[in-house]
Amino acid sequence: MTCADPGEITNGHRTTSDAGFPVGSHVQYRCLPGYSLEGAAVLTCYSRDTGTPKWSDRVPKCALKYEPCLNPGVPENGYQTLYKHHYQAGESLRFFCYEGFELIGEVTITCVPGHPSQWTSQPPLCKVTQTTDPSRQLEGGNLALAILLPLGLVIVLGCGVYVYYTKLQGKSLFGFSGSHSYSPITVESDFSNPLYEAGDTREYEVSI
């Protein structure tokens, strides 16, 4: 007595102990690389009290095998739930940030099946919130300093230039006030009559 031929499987192959599939024989199934076997790997032909012999199980299937997603890592200043080294296709991973930090990016990412499987997006980042970021406070102080310092320099330089030119003008106004040896010039005239007739002449004495 024999069992009926159980058949081949897609994306796999089989080995048999007896070509005729007699009672007691068995068939072993294997899948090609990249596929996983779903079901019993070995089928055995057994005899029943009544009727024809039957296989011990159904023929298995070779399903596409997905490589797991690797853990993308924990963001700095943050953490993740259910930390594992590998995640199967369809599994999700959730991220959180510590107090004082805000999450930038996707909170939850999912492992998408493939060859290899991949995450739906890159892991998020944890950045310092604006209210607690000391660098932002320093930026504000630096901005005020950057504005006030040049303004102060302009004022100081302006005052210096004003004082310099004021002193320079003072020297030009009073630079000739010193004593010099000049002989005075005197002019003596005697105007007994300021009115003159035509043809009149007058003599003047000038002493130096």
What does this structure look like?
- Residues 1-64, 67-128 form the Sushi domain.
- This protein has 3 domains: 12-64, Ribbon (Complement Module, domain 1), CATH 2.10.70.10; 69-128, Ribbon (Complement Module, domain 1); 135-168.
- 20% of the residues lie in helices and 29% in strands.
- The chain has one helix at 134-174; strands at residues 12-16, 26-31, 35-38, 42-46, 54-55, 61-64, 69-70, 78-80, 86-87, 92-97, 101-104, 108-112, 118-119, 125-128, 186-188, 205-207.
- The longest helix has 41 residues, at 134-174.
- It is rod-shaped, with a radius of gyration of 55 Å.
Poorly predicted spans: 173-180
| Order of secondary-structure elements | EEEEEEEEEEEEEEHEE
What is the first-to-last residue Cα distance? 167 Å
SS element count, helices: 1
CATH class of the largest domain, anyone? Mainly Beta
Report the biggest beta sheet as strand number plus sense, adding barrel if it closes.
4 strands, antiparallel
- Full CATH superfamily name of the largest domain: Complement Module, domain 1
Rounded to the nearest angstrom, the radius of gyration is: 55 Å
CATH architecture group name of the largest domain: Ribbon
